[in-house]
Amino acid sequence: MTGEEAAAEMEWLAKEIARHNALYHTDDAPEISDADYDALVRRNAELEAEFPHLVRADSPSASVGAAPAGHLTKVRHARAMLSLDNAFDDAEVLEFAARVRRFLNLPADAPVAMTAEPKIDGLSCSLRYEKGVLVQALTRGDGTTGEVVTDNVRTIADIPQRLAGADAPDVCELRGEVYMAKADFAALNARQAESGGKIFANPRNAAAGSLRQLDAAITRARPLRFLAHGWGEVSALPADTQSGMMAAIAAWGLPVSDLLLPCASAEEALAQYRRIEAMRADLPFDIDGVVYKVDRLDWQGRLGFVAKAPRWAIAHKFPAERAQTTLLAIDIQVGRTGKLTPVARLEPVTVGGVVVTNATLHNADEIARLGVRPGDRVTVQRAGDVIPQILESLTAAEDRPAFVFPAHCPECGSDAVREEGEVDIRCTGGLICPAQRVERLRHFVSRQAMDIDGLGGTHVESFFRDGLIHTPADIFRLRNRIDELVKREKWAGTSVRNLIDAIEARRAPDPARFLFGLGIRHVGQVTARDLVKAFGTVEAVAAVATRAASDADALAELNAVDGIGPVVAQALADFFAEPHNRAAWDDLLSEVAPTPYVSNERASAVTGKTVVFTGTLETMSRDEAKAQALALGAKVSGSVSAKTDLVVAGPGAGSKLKKAAELGVAVIDEAGWAEIVAAAG
Ligand code: IVH
């Protein structure tokens, strides 16, 4: 099969799979069997494996099975799903009991019987049984409206399809928590890592991501569990207490926590809290507190609820776990965008059952605020699933020097700079910094920049990994490595030829695209065009920017260019002052020769005007519309202000349209825009 044939088939598959997705998920009217659908998806995956350079931007494999949960059907709850108020210490729990007494006008010493049970860290789900049969499952959603997850819930072994016994009320909504056990979560993440799938941050996210799937087959493959903790609409109540109801729910076959305890008073409930807290680390699932519920249902009815939480229940949250340890070192990590993030390396310490070895320090300001230095004893805190934090240093300041944030990038040695008004410090070695390289290379070849046909982000990544390309210039030397390419990718000779041809076609790139492709901070598409328009060639831009590092006049010259402010001027100066960037630049210019700037502006109704696009465009992409506007000499802005001359609004336009109306800015639709473009000829 040739690349061309494969590309044609992949195009057809993308359209066909998208059509069947819509028929199945949106119209509920599938035309083909699941097996036939799977065959299409498999065929596409095969072609993508064989022709990785032909993977489409709208590849079906990127969306199959991971359809956004936004597409799940929404349904109103028969009875709202409430949330809970929190108490953080014993006093607040005793105050809860006192409030209940006051509300019910009970004597101050009357005991308030309540249940105590673990607060499970999952997501709540409402199961509707009619005549004992499971008919619908909804997520909590916003409490009023939830998402339909019936098929998914049917895959959870803890949840019976039919209630046990003959005494279940005709209508019976049972509510509880869908969760993932800690061990199952770890195993799932290990599997995901192996298959290159999504890694979940914590069991709660894994449970939510697994339940809210369009494809119940995915949910089935995930080890979800369920614990009941309440009910919604029920046609007849089999008991008059919370504890009696929970016993009935257990008898109907739903799991109820074996740590649920009816307590005669708030004091007894607090004792149960302490027992549960002591067991916390050894429980097979994550919990983040204990929930107390007034036991008498007639009292619950009288107490009612405030806003979104019942007056008859409260969640007693566990305090954030803390421990002391030694700060061994402060490492600096460089992110894909060049941001330098300090990370505290700690002597391993157990915090709430989890061994902590790292903590985030956020940025240089945070280090200064805490005054921490390597060698200090520190207090670390871990709360829920947040990254452990350092709270304070326990070591006296003495005369040990403060930590000095490095002035150079630890990855590539380039200058690290902090821009005015910014908290973050960034590496300036964009083109050569290993931490940023792949990202930069992807940007360089992207559609808005060099637009190299058939060289997508996935390729760049694999070529980089395999040492075929390190810098942008290397892309233009790939023609010397055709043999390796053919072998490595198992590509047909023609595919490699096509790729090389596409690269060769960019030896004389548009100067603005080229400049934009370098990924210089603050130099976007529009700024890049403004720069080459002002200086004529990329070499001239580089010359001024190079001088700008040491010459105030040159900096002023950059600053004076229409559309360029001091921040961009300084970013340009920083970029060209960095020797590594300079070397990469020279290397690149030995391979390519960007053309001089040629005005391609056509005089039109919008020349010199500022245009904002908002809403959905139907006949073209946002990028294409922007390119048209720029070609007509218009400026394109992302937000509506007094400086906006024209707003082009498609369906779904919201706040920007409103703002335009407020400011009296002219608004046209897509057809109106097409007329302006056509009129310019
Ligand atoms: S009772 C009206 N009991 O916590 C009472 N909720 O923060 C509503 N949760 O939305 C809930 N374990 O998802 C209750 N034993 C438990 C719980 C529990 C976990 C969740 C539930 C709720 C959230 C409120």
Helix/strand layout:
Blueprint: H1 3-26, H2 34-50, H3 60-63, E1 74-76, E2 86-87, H4 90-104, E3 114-120, E4 123-130, E5 133-139, E6 145-147, H5 150-153, E7 171-180, H6 182-195, H7 203-211, H8 216-220, E8 224-234, H9 242-251, E9 261-263, H10 266-279, E10 287-294, H11 297-303, E11 305-306, E12 309-310, E13 313-317, E14 321-334, E15 339-351, E16 354-360, H12 364-370, E17 377-382, E18 389-393, E19 416-418, E20 425-427, H13 434-445, H14 457-465, H15 472-475, H16 482-489, H17 493-504, H18 511-517, H19 525-535, H20 538-548, H21 552-559, H22 566-577, H23 579-589, E21 610-614, H24 622-631, E22 635-637, E23 646-649, H25 655-663, E24 666-668, H26 670-679
Parallel strand pairs: 2-13, 21-22, 21-23, 23-24
Antiparallel strand pairs: 1-6, 3-9, 3-10, 4-5, 4-7, 7-8, 10-13, 11-12, 14-15, 14-17, 15-16, 15-20, 17-18, 19-20
The structure holds 2-(butylsulfanyl)adenosine.
